[in-house]
């Protein structure tokens, strides 16, 4: 099954100021998430960003918010966005949810499992997820795959959202996000 731009939304889980430094690849994770947010903003994909206990962990990285200024930001205390009941109706109304963030084996995993229980088609962007250890990330991805989530890359997301080279934003996306060295 392909991602359908008219029925999908992006959910970015907990890429926050005081948490990013503990990840296995903090700079790479931030750069790849910013890339994904910026590219999907060009495609006008509805986007939600969650923040786990922002009073203690800080807010979403400024570069990410700047890349997707229309994104809705929600706060939570539960590890799962679903258990926290913080997801807006606009996200829940769509069948497909593209998910990235951190930590892969905790908040991303629990959110994805909750979305699957709600019957959502979930696409986890492997190259825009991170954990404190690569082993934890790999275990989280494997468990999500076993639960029926599709493991994808950022480029897979973009090409599926556009569908063809005839998409009105294809030329811009190609020149901006697919040429040269990318994060």
Explain the overall architecture.
By secondary structure, the chain is an alpha/beta fold. It has one domain (8-177): Isochorismatase-like (Rossmann fold), CATH 3.40.50. It contains ten helices and six strands, in the order βααβααβααβαβαβαα. It has helices at 17-20, 26-42, 54-57, 62-67, 81-84, 89-92, 104-117, 134-146, 154-162, 170-177, and strands at residues 8-13, 47-52, 72-76, 96-102, 121-130, 150-152. It has a six-stranded parallel sheet. α7 runs parallel beside α8. The protein is globular. The mean pLDDT is 97.
Assign an overall shape.
globular
- CATH topology-level fold name: Rossmann fold
Query: How many domains would you count in the coordinates?
Result: 1
Rg is 15 Å
Backbone structural class: alpha/beta
**Count of discrete alpha- or pi-helical segments spanning 4 or more residues:** 10
CATH superfamily: Isochorismatase-like
Measured by DSSP, the beta-strand proportion falls in 15-25%
Main sheet overview: 6 strands, parallel
Distance between the termini: 27 Å
Low-confidence stretches: none
